[in-house]
TrEMBL record:
PANTHER family named among the record's database cross-references: HTH-TYPE TRANSCRIPTIONAL REPRESSOR NEMR, TRANSCRIPTIONAL REGULATORY PROTEIN
Protein name per Swiss-Prot or TrEMBL: TetR family transcriptional regulator
Every HTH tetR-type domain range: 10-70
Location of the DNA-binding region in this protein: 33-52
InterPro entries xref list: DNA-bd_HTH_TetR-type_CS, Homeodomain-like_sf, HTH_TetR, Tet_transcr_reg_TetR-rel_C_sf
Annotated coiled-coil segments of the chain: none
GO MF annotations, alphabetized: DNA binding
Gene3D superfamilies given in the database record: Tetracycline Repressor, domain 2
Keyword list, A-Z: DNA-binding, Transcription, Transcription regulation
Pfam families per UniProt: TetR_N (PF00440)
Source organism (scientific name): Saccharomonospora piscinae
Amino acid sequence: MPRVSQDHLAARRRQILDGARVCFTRHGYEGATVRRLEDATGLSRGAIFHHFRDKDSLFLALAEDDARRMADVVAEQGLVQVMRELLSGADAHPADWLGTRLEVSRRLRTDPDFRARWAQRSEQLTTATRKRLLWQREAGNLRDDVSVDVLTAYLELVLEGLVSHLAMGLPADDLEPVLDVVEESVRRHRGLATPEL
């Protein structure tokens, strides 16, 4: 029997994650039954669970994948850009990304086992934000009267507030200027335009 290539395995894993993202977004964690996961991915339960031990492992892998994508955006453009992408739809799967983030928040509140597993993995976004802010401070672009840790916590709270706002279905058409204010609030003011944080 021929061996399956790593490229094929990686493509299959991506297919499962992309389908599962849609399923979890549409039905939530509890409503994402194995049958619905099969429909969303176009694969059998055997194929899905060959790559992931169980539904919980699949969801955690999906949440990690989205956190990694967000951390990549933060490293390049800052946490405010992540928020802008949630608003603009510039990301490849903005609504799906939001759906995963909402499910993570819900499970953190209600599932102690998930909370323990997620705690080991959730530092990625915070670390990327802190590194970006330190880099901006060294470049002279970041206000220096507040610690980087406080600014990191502030931006993360704004992100969580935006996610909650979008989750409630509240209007988002006029939030770009709000993000402009958030971005301005962490900049060092010298009368010159500075790069995005």
